[in-house]
Amino acid sequence: MSERKQNKKIDNKAPVIVGVGDFTDRSKEDGLNPQELLAKASQLAIKDSGIKDLNKQIDYVGVVRFSVDFLTATNQSSFQYSNFPRTLSNKLGIQATNEVYAPMGGNSPQVLLEDALIKISSGETDCALLAGGEALQTMIARLKAGMSLDWLDEPGGNPEMIGNNAIGFSEHEKIHGMDLPTNVYPLFAQSLRKKDNKTAEQHLKECSSLFSEFSKVASNNPYSWFPTFRSEEEIAAVTKNNRLVGYPYTKYLNSVIRVNMSSAYILMSQTKADELGVNQNKRVYVHGCSILDDIWNVSERPNFHSSPAIRTCVNQTLEQAEVSFDDISHFDLYSCFPSAVQIAKEELGIPEEKKDLTITGGLPYFGGPGNSYTMFSTTEMVRQLRKNPKNFGLLTANSWFITKHAAVVMSTSPSMRYEKIDNHLIQKEINSKAINNFTENPQGNGKILTYTIINGRKGLEFALVIGSLEDGSRFIANSEKNEDLLQKMIKDEMLDARISVSQKDGKNIFNLI
At 384, which CATH number? Predict the structure, then answer.
């Protein structure tokens, strides 16, 4: 750690987290609505700060976008909150001059955090409440039971919409099934094992071993949706309760979004914390934050096992925090699927033997509440750092399909005011690496670069491949629903397998040669 960092004086505009709160509601049809759910966590965060009537000091209310509140969501019409930051403010008796609603994506909490950091560091705001969560367990249960939701509120006004709300896939990718994380992350898995020259069995064993460690952490976390330890063998075995979802991933290797969970924290300036008499043992400073994207469409990336954006993002954050990777004691790598963790590990140079990569338990076990998971990794990081003063913690975020990224470094050590990192030129450089030989109308023979087999609740459905033609052109294709073919593709090695491809009913269809 640099001498400058160790001797740094506290900046009056330094952003500091002073209160955190999390809430898990295991109810089904009778669960809390989104307003009530986020209010619970917010009240806990206010209480945790130890400041009486803190709600009267809050002038910024930011909310992470609910996953159902997006145009790709099946039940978007059921979610009718026109200004959720004000809806939450009204519930808590807050009069906020800044009402902010963050974008779609797993890095949404960091987009929200960065906005609050900038406004606190510039003096535009003094005290911010940031909140996020999901009530999907109750929403789906009520809809399945034929019950009304009555989840609506029109308190007036329009929140400030921040961040990138672009859809994370092309229409061509969607047609072939590359619009769902459960279909796309297995493609990364197969590419990783090809790069590492591993068999499917070896790779599954590595994934199961990695996530068994995550489940161990979740089993000891009181906020976990599934506080249950799962062994490597249990995670890998295909059973009635652990079906194959997207080959090679079983259900226990998939993020769980159907939860009722909320998280919130209070962020304020150092000056405000001093004015309100916040105890020093409550204060955790944000030392660095960076946000960056990989090439937007997965099909146009040079390969399916790397992420220049997460590597750059983390390095920028460490540099801004003036610490090295070796200074980090607490980690939480975004863990929607094993490939997300494995790619991050490789990009960051984390050795295979390092196991303590989560402080929550990860999205398949702790829970993956839509866009809001890193709200929980942030609040848990605050708790860990309070128990271990002067240590540094790093958390990462990931959105869509290893597409949108963020990294944050935190510590109880004094910090400086935040200055936004200008990533314009770096983003342009990353985007320039997109391939220019992708074809939507492939014809002829080629080979499989990566693949998965989609297994629904009623059985095997289709195979999804990304391949290259003999002239080097990249393409996406599906199989037809052929049980024998799909079973063969699960049993046999299909990486680099020879295939032919043509069009049928608006899709690219492949056959083995």
Answer: 3.40.47.10
Residue 238 lies in a domain: no
Q: What separation in angstroms does the CA of 134 have from each of 33, 416, 470?
A: 9, 33, 46
Are 461 and 379 in a shared domain? no
One-letter amino acid at 219 equals S
- Tell me which of 431, 465, 494 is where a domain ends: 431
Whole-Å CA distances, 126 to 53, 60, 100, 202, 380: 15, 8, 15, 52, 23
Q: List 463's β-bridge partners, or say none.
A: 453
pLDDT confidence tier of residue 71, bands split at 50, 70 and 90: confident
Give 300's Cβ-side CA count (13 Å radius): 18
Query: Is there a domain that residue 231 lies in?
Result: no
DSSP code string of 170-237: -HHHHHTTTTSHHHHHHHHHHHHHHHTT--HHHHHHHHHHHHHHHHHHHTT-TT-SS-----HHHHHS
Structure tokens at 378: 């942030």
pLDDT per position as a tens digit, 240-295: 999 999 999 999 999 999 999 999 999 999 999 999 999 999 999 999 999 999 99
Residue 476 lies in a domain: yes
Position 7 confidence tier, pLDDT thresholds 50, 70, 90: very low
- Reduced to 3 states (helix: H, G, I; strand: E, B; else coil), residue 407 is strand
Distance CA 137, CA 25 (A): 9
pTM of this prediction? Answer: 0.96
Tens of pLDDT, residue by residue over 410-456, are: 999 989 999 999 999 999 999 999 999 999 999 999 999 999 999 99
In whole angstroms, give the CA distance from residue 233 to residue 238: 10
Taking residues 32-55, report their average pLDDT. Answer: 97
What's the rounded Cα separation, in Å, for the pair 91 and 54? 14
Burial of 505 (0-12, 13-18, 19+ CB in 10 A): exposed
